[in-house]
Amino acid sequence: MEVLVVDDGSTDTTAEIVKSFAQKDSRVSLFQQSNAGVAARNLAIETSKGEYIAPIDADDIWYPQNIEKQVECLIKSEQSVGVVYSWSLDINEKDFLTGGFYNSTIEGEVYKALVYKYFMGNASSSLICRICFERVGGYNGQLKAENAQGCEYLELFLPIAEHYQFKVVPEFLVGYRQISSSRSCNYAAMAKSHSLIMADVRERHPEIPANIYR
Q: Which of 51, 83, 114, 193 suits 121 as a labelling partner, its CA being 20 to 30 A distant?
């Protein structure tokens, strides 16, 4: 296991904290760049050596057995499976549950289901096979330039779902933090991001019924 931390232009003591961990544990590495947004993950993906890649946002939490159970699920799955996701619970600034949760049981061929709804819930709930990135590329950095951040995760998973199947670990193993400063609370940017992605889907897949987009 390796832990690759991308400090994307932070203004706090993130770098110093990560360096203190890296000095004690060779599996931890720090990378620094400035304000690439969600696409900052591409730097870690390109540098990583593992067969599986599990992204996590800075403010979210993996509960202790999340990675273990996701890897176990992938190992037991057919080679056609490229993504495993876990259930997640909404948490606040103090790690307390807020009542929100994501517990989808959607598996297999999920493309149309993803168009209808981002059933995985958040960006920190998935374990992705490296071959998926090699086939479809990484996160789209252009959305940030268009002030349309927020749906980069959906945009990544849609082409993956065209080629690979998805599996779910039906357990609450991720804490998804909801605070007012979260990117997901910028509704205007999120809406623009979603509209751009759906426009591309409509063009690529005219066979999908129009009622799915409602």
A: 51
